[in-house]
Protein backbone atom coordinates (compact mmCIF):
# COMPACT_ATOMS: atom_id res chain seq x y z
CA UNK A 1 0.00 0.00 0.00
CA UNK A 2 2.85 2.40 0.79
CA UNK A 3 4.37 1.72 -2.62
CA UNK A 4 1.01 2.60 -4.14
CA UNK A 5 0.96 5.82 -2.09
CA UNK A 6 4.48 6.69 -3.16
CA UNK A 7 3.61 5.99 -6.77
CA UNK A 8 0.52 8.19 -6.60
CA UNK A 9 2.42 11.03 -4.96
CA UNK A 10 5.18 10.80 -7.55
CA UNK A 11 2.61 10.87 -10.31
CA UNK A 12 0.97 13.99 -8.89
CA UNK A 13 4.02 16.03 -7.97
CA UNK A 14 6.87 14.45 -9.89
CA UNK A 15 8.59 13.16 -6.76
CA UNK A 16 8.05 12.48 -3.08
CA UNK A 17 8.32 15.88 -1.39
CA UNK A 18 11.46 16.25 0.73
CA UNK A 19 9.39 16.81 3.86
CA UNK A 20 7.57 13.49 3.57
CA UNK A 21 8.53 9.94 4.37
CA UNK A 22 6.62 6.66 4.54
CA UNK A 23 7.00 4.36 7.54
CA UNK A 24 5.64 0.82 7.79
CA UNK A 25 4.70 0.23 11.42
CA UNK A 26 1.92 -1.03 13.68
CA UNK A 27 -0.77 1.59 14.36
CA UNK A 28 -1.50 -0.03 17.71
CA UNK A 29 2.16 0.04 18.75
CA UNK A 30 3.32 3.40 17.53
CA UNK A 31 7.12 3.58 17.45
CA UNK A 32 7.41 7.33 18.01
CA UNK A 33 8.73 9.44 20.87
CA UNK A 34 6.08 11.17 23.01
CA UNK A 35 4.97 14.60 21.79
CA UNK A 36 6.36 14.05 18.30
CA UNK A 37 3.48 15.47 16.26
CA UNK A 38 1.46 18.68 16.23
CA UNK A 39 -1.15 17.20 13.95
CA UNK A 40 -2.44 13.71 13.28
CA UNK A 41 -4.60 12.80 10.33
CA UNK A 42 -6.23 9.41 10.01
CA UNK A 43 -8.68 8.83 7.20
CA UNK A 44 -10.90 5.76 7.29
CA UNK A 45 -8.82 3.81 9.77
CA UNK A 46 -11.02 3.77 12.89
CA UNK A 47 -13.63 1.50 11.31
CA UNK A 48 -10.86 -1.04 10.63
CA UNK A 49 -9.76 -1.16 14.27
CA UNK A 50 -11.32 -3.34 16.96
CA UNK A 51 -9.73 -1.54 19.89
CA UNK A 52 -10.18 2.17 19.14
CA UNK A 53 -9.43 3.03 22.76
CA UNK A 54 -5.95 1.49 22.51
CA UNK A 55 -5.32 3.33 19.26
CA UNK A 56 -6.33 6.69 20.76
CA UNK A 57 -4.18 6.18 23.85
CA UNK A 58 -1.20 5.63 21.58
CA UNK A 59 -2.04 8.69 19.53
CA UNK A 60 -2.44 10.87 22.61
CA UNK A 61 1.03 9.86 23.66
CA UNK A 62 2.69 10.98 20.43
CA UNK A 63 0.60 14.14 20.03
CA UNK A 64 2.04 17.35 21.40
CA UNK A 65 0.15 19.44 23.92
CA UNK A 66 -2.64 21.35 22.19
CA UNK A 67 -2.15 19.19 19.14
CA UNK A 68 -5.02 18.37 16.84
CA UNK A 69 -6.27 15.09 15.47
CA UNK A 70 -8.47 14.71 12.42
CA UNK A 71 -10.32 11.47 11.71
CA UNK A 72 -12.82 10.18 9.24
CA UNK A 73 -14.60 6.88 9.64
CA UNK A 74 -17.68 5.05 8.48
CA UNK A 75 -20.43 4.83 11.08
CA UNK A 76 -23.97 3.59 11.29
CA UNK A 77 -26.19 6.44 10.17
CA UNK A 78 -29.78 5.18 10.16
CA UNK A 79 -29.52 4.82 6.41
CA UNK A 80 -30.13 1.90 4.04
CA UNK A 81 -26.34 1.57 3.72
CA UNK A 82 -26.26 0.43 7.36
CA UNK A 83 -27.18 -3.01 6.02
CA UNK A 84 -24.15 -2.94 3.73
CA UNK A 85 -22.04 -1.81 6.66
CA UNK A 86 -23.30 -4.80 8.64
CA UNK A 87 -22.53 -7.16 5.75
CA UNK A 88 -18.97 -5.83 5.55
CA UNK A 89 -18.68 -6.27 9.30
CA UNK A 90 -19.89 -9.85 9.05
CA UNK A 91 -17.22 -10.43 6.41
CA UNK A 92 -14.63 -9.14 8.86
CA UNK A 93 -13.78 -6.07 6.80
CA UNK A 94 -14.72 -3.42 9.34
CA UNK A 95 -16.18 -2.70 12.77
CA UNK A 96 -19.58 -0.96 12.71
CA UNK A 97 -20.17 1.71 15.35
CA UNK A 98 -22.39 4.73 15.66
CA UNK A 99 -21.14 8.20 16.46
CA UNK A 100 -22.29 8.03 20.07
CA UNK A 101 -20.22 4.91 20.67
CA UNK A 102 -17.19 6.58 19.14
CA UNK A 103 -17.72 9.81 21.03
CA UNK A 104 -17.91 7.88 24.30
CA UNK A 105 -14.45 6.42 23.67
CA UNK A 106 -12.98 9.86 22.94
CA UNK A 107 -14.64 11.41 25.97
CA UNK A 108 -13.43 8.66 28.25
CA UNK A 109 -9.93 9.69 27.24
CA UNK A 110 -10.68 13.39 27.82
CA UNK A 111 -10.70 14.14 24.13
CA UNK A 112 -13.83 16.13 23.34
CA UNK A 113 -14.74 15.97 19.69
CA UNK A 114 -16.42 18.11 17.09
CA UNK A 115 -17.84 16.25 14.18
CA UNK A 116 -19.80 16.51 10.94
CA UNK A 117 -21.80 13.56 9.71
CA UNK A 118 -22.42 13.15 5.99
CA UNK A 119 -24.37 10.01 5.19
CA UNK A 120 -22.40 7.22 6.84
CA UNK A 121 -19.13 9.13 6.99
CA UNK A 122 -18.19 11.15 10.04
CA UNK A 123 -15.45 13.80 10.06
CA UNK A 124 -14.00 14.23 13.54
CA UNK A 125 -11.75 16.91 15.00
CA UNK A 126 -10.31 16.74 18.47
CA UNK A 127 -7.78 18.97 20.17
CA UNK A 128 -5.99 17.46 23.10
CA UNK A 129 -4.83 19.58 25.99
CA UNK A 130 -3.17 17.77 28.87
CA UNK A 131 -4.58 20.17 31.41
CA UNK A 132 -8.13 19.83 30.18
CA UNK A 133 -10.82 17.59 31.55
CA UNK A 134 -13.91 17.08 29.49
CA UNK A 135 -17.16 18.55 30.73
CA UNK A 136 -20.52 18.08 29.14
CA UNK B 1 10.73 23.23 4.79
CA UNK B 2 12.32 20.43 6.77
CA UNK B 3 13.81 17.58 4.80
CA UNK B 4 12.91 14.32 6.44
CA UNK B 5 15.72 11.85 6.08
CA UNK B 6 16.99 9.09 8.29
CA UNK B 7 18.38 11.53 10.85
CA UNK B 8 15.04 13.25 11.48
CA UNK B 9 13.18 9.95 11.40
CA UNK B 10 15.52 8.45 13.98
CA UNK B 11 14.92 11.46 16.22
CA UNK B 12 11.16 10.93 16.00
CA UNK B 13 11.34 7.22 16.76
CA UNK B 14 11.64 5.75 20.23
CA UNK B 15 15.17 4.85 21.23
CA UNK B 16 14.50 1.12 21.26
CA UNK B 17 13.07 1.15 17.74
CA UNK B 18 15.23 0.08 14.83
CA UNK B 19 14.19 0.87 11.32
CA UNK B 20 15.41 0.01 7.88
CA UNK B 21 15.12 1.42 4.41
CA UNK B 22 12.89 -0.66 2.17
CA UNK B 23 13.29 1.54 -0.89
CA UNK B 24 13.79 5.29 -1.32
CA UNK B 25 11.32 7.18 0.91
CA UNK B 26 9.86 4.01 2.45
CA UNK B 27 11.09 2.69 5.79
CA UNK B 28 9.94 -0.13 8.06
CA UNK B 29 10.27 -0.81 11.76
CA UNK B 30 9.80 -4.51 11.11
CA UNK B 31 13.15 -6.19 10.90
CA UNK B 32 13.33 -9.68 9.57
CA UNK B 33 9.92 -10.58 8.32
CA UNK B 34 7.65 -9.30 5.66
CA UNK B 35 4.65 -7.97 7.56
CA UNK B 36 1.54 -7.49 5.50
CA UNK B 37 -2.19 -7.24 5.89
CA UNK B 38 -5.03 -7.85 3.45
CA UNK B 39 -4.73 -4.31 2.16
CA UNK B 40 -1.25 -5.12 0.85
CA UNK B 41 -2.59 -7.82 -1.44
CA UNK B 42 -4.74 -7.84 -4.52
CA UNK B 43 -7.69 -7.15 -2.20
CA UNK B 44 -6.07 -3.86 -1.33
CA UNK B 45 -5.88 -2.81 -4.95
CA UNK B 46 -9.52 -3.74 -5.53
CA UNK B 47 -10.51 -2.03 -2.31
CA UNK B 48 -8.59 1.03 -3.38
CA UNK B 49 -10.28 1.13 -6.75
CA UNK B 50 -13.81 0.63 -5.38
CA UNK B 51 -13.70 2.37 -2.04
CA UNK B 52 -12.10 5.50 -3.43
CA UNK B 53 -14.55 5.90 -6.28
CA UNK B 54 -16.53 9.13 -5.99
CA UNK B 55 -19.77 7.71 -7.40
CA UNK B 56 -19.62 4.68 -5.10
CA UNK B 57 -19.13 6.87 -2.05
CA UNK B 58 -21.83 9.30 -3.09
CA UNK B 59 -24.42 6.65 -3.85
CA UNK B 60 -23.68 4.10 -1.15
CA UNK B 61 -22.32 6.06 1.75
CA UNK B 62 -23.87 9.44 1.02
CA UNK B 63 -20.92 11.81 1.06
CA UNK B 64 -18.53 13.53 -1.33
CA UNK B 65 -14.90 12.41 -1.37
CA UNK B 66 -13.85 16.02 -1.96
CA UNK B 67 -14.36 16.50 1.77
CA UNK B 68 -11.24 14.45 2.47
CA UNK B 69 -9.05 16.96 0.67
CA UNK B 70 -10.73 19.79 2.60
CA UNK B 71 -10.00 18.04 5.87
CA UNK B 72 -6.38 17.39 4.92
CA UNK B 73 -5.95 21.02 3.87
CA UNK B 74 -7.45 22.25 7.15
CA UNK B 75 -5.18 19.93 9.08
CA UNK B 76 -2.03 21.05 7.29
CA UNK B 77 -2.80 24.76 7.51
CA UNK B 78 -3.55 24.52 11.22
CA UNK B 79 -0.50 22.49 12.10
CA UNK B 80 2.06 25.25 12.55
CA UNK B 81 5.67 24.16 12.19
CA UNK B 82 5.44 20.79 13.88
CA UNK B 83 5.40 17.39 12.30
CA UNK B 84 2.25 15.84 10.86
CA UNK B 85 1.45 12.14 11.09
CA UNK B 86 -0.93 10.57 8.59
CA UNK B 87 -1.79 7.32 10.30
CA UNK B 88 -2.91 4.60 7.91
CA UNK B 89 -2.32 6.81 4.92
CA UNK B 90 -3.47 4.13 2.49
CA UNK B 91 -2.68 4.89 -1.11
CA UNK B 92 -3.10 8.66 -0.65
CA UNK B 93 -6.00 8.58 -3.09
CA UNK B 94 -7.75 11.44 -1.38
CA UNK B 95 -4.74 13.36 -0.14
CA UNK B 96 -1.84 13.09 -2.61
CA UNK B 97 -2.72 16.32 -4.39
CA UNK B 98 -3.10 18.22 -1.12
CA UNK B 99 0.15 16.86 0.26
CA UNK B 100 2.02 17.69 -2.92
CA UNK B 101 1.02 21.34 -2.53
Taken as a percent bin, the fraction of beta residues of chain A is 25-35%
Order of strands across the biggest sheet of chain A?
A: 2-3-5-4
Q: How helix-rich are the residues of chain B, as a percent range?
A: 40-55%
Protein chains sharing the most extensive interface:
A-B, 54 and 63 residues
Please provide the ordered H/E string of secondary-structure elements of chain A: HEEHEHHEE
Mean pLDDT of chain B, to the nearest integer, reads 86
Q: What is the 3D shape of chain B?
A: flat
Can you tell me the CATH architecture of one domain in chain A? 3-Layer(aba) Sandwich
Low-confidence stretches of chain B: none
Summed over residues and divided by their number, the pLDDT of chain A gives a mean of 92
| End-to-end Cα distance of chain B | 12 Å
Tell me the helix content of chain A: 25-40%
- Cα radius of gyration of chain B in angstroms: 16 Å
Structure classification of chain B: alpha+beta
Q: Find the structural class of chain A using helix and strand composition.
A: alpha+beta
Helix and strand topology:
The complex is a heterodimer of chains A (136) and B (101).
Chain A lengths: L1 H12 L8 E3 L12 E7 L8 H11 E12 L6 H10 L8 H10 L4 E6 L2 E8 L8
Parallel strand pairs in A: 2-3
Antiparallel strand pairs in A: 3-5, 4-5
Chain B lengths: L5 H7 L7 E4 L2 E3 L13 H10 L2 H8 L4 H12 L5 E4 L9 H5 L1
Antiparallel strand pairs in B: 1-2
Quick summary:
Chain A is an alpha+beta fold.
Amino acid sequence: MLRLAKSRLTKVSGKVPDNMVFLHADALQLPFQPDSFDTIISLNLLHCIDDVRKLLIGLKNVLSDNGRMYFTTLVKGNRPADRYLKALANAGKLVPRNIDQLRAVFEELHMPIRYDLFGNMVFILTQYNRGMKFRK
Amino acid sequence: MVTIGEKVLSELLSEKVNFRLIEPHIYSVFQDIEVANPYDTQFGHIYDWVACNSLYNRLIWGYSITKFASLARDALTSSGKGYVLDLGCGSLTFTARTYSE
